[in-house]
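[audit] Reproducing an earlier prediction to check determinism. Same input, same settings, fresh worker. If the tokens differ from the archived copy the diff job will pick it up downstream; this log only records the rerun itself.
[audit] input (447 residues):
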Amino acid sequence: MAIAIIMPKQGQSVESCILTELKKKKGDIVAVGDILFAYETDKASFEEEAKVAGTVLDVFFGEGDEIPVLTNVMVIGHPGESTGEFRPGGEATVTVAPAAQAETQTATSPATAAAAAPEKPSVSPSEGGEPSPVSPRARKLAEKNAIQAETLAGTGPHGRVIERDVQAAVEAAPKTTPLAKAILRDTGATLPETGSGPAGKARGADVGVKNPAYAADSEIKPLSNMRKLIARAMHASLQNSAQLTHHLGADARRILTLRKTVKKAVEGGYPTDITLNDMVCQAVVHALRKFPQVNAHFLGDSIRYFSKIHLGLAVDTERGLMVPTVRNADDLSIQGLARQLKEVANACKKGAIDPDLLSPEAASFTVSNLGNYGVEMFTPVINLPQVAILGVNTIVPRPKDLGGGVYGFVPHIGLSLTYDHRALDGGEATRFLKQIAIEIETLDINF
């Protein structure tokens, strides 16, 4: 009996996954426990194991496809079994018996055949100006041929753009050089009706490269799936909110002294290495308790205020920026918070983080620390729908009045608070930022 292998649902917030590698292809023999394919959510990677033995009868998607969760990816069974009923999207081909096919060809004249032939899809948005839905197979073919699939008129169910629509658009489009095709695919530039090359072929100069003298010393590379997700999130954040950043410095002498104390304690067997970042995060938790209006999500015409503090931490990994969440951070001691922050950061770097913890909705406030890189000031981007994010900068010496007319250089840690002005006024944002500085300057650790 043929068995469909679906795209698993990893976490409640995950709606689709990207198929990164097919380990088994059509016709391959599969044993229980074999890896069938690898896939990734927004930022975590997984592998799907075979639960049944048999032969891969069909594979419905290719590497790089974005597949909705719980959708059939492949079918395993015995050779000769039917797989058409498992094909997602209702795009299974209908096989016509030879006799019926001959009868149809005899009864149909060239004129009626031409009239019955489906028109090629027009390159225009669907009704209402909304982009047309696109099947994964159609999207892959469109990306390969630098076609904007969303602008096609789909002939599938409910106006869905399917593979034959893209194929028709490919046949109708002008021919392009490899350079022009790469530019179209990677930049989304508009393909001209006719190009400047032989027989109207579109060249690189027609779609964006104006000076061919520089074509030899540059290379166009497609964005990784991870980079595309980050790019979309950053663009959406800046486009859909009113962001403003305030900068302030906090006296760092207290936390630098605590850090030295912690190092000595760790050398003596103390189990938790509490870093400067852990101390800042603890100060943020204390400040959020006093300013609950910052511990919130802006929902357009309403605001969700959280009774618990779910702290997000920006983590730099080889695959890109991730923001895992430590839930109920206000219930943790600084030792517990330090351990939890290290655990989620390491899970991100290994690609084993729970996808639900990466959702922007999982955290109620986020901290992004660039101090280790020597950054003195920056403007962090809000992780919507959160109403604010704290950027932590490096420690630099600044002049300070030490009393009695004496001035000296004192180490200060830079703090950059970006907030959504739709949710917070400048005054309360400034008072919250000042409270973080106060908490840093008065922080205590109980060993």
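[audit] rerun output stored. Observation attached for the diff report: The first strand starts at residue 3 and ends at 6.
[audit] end
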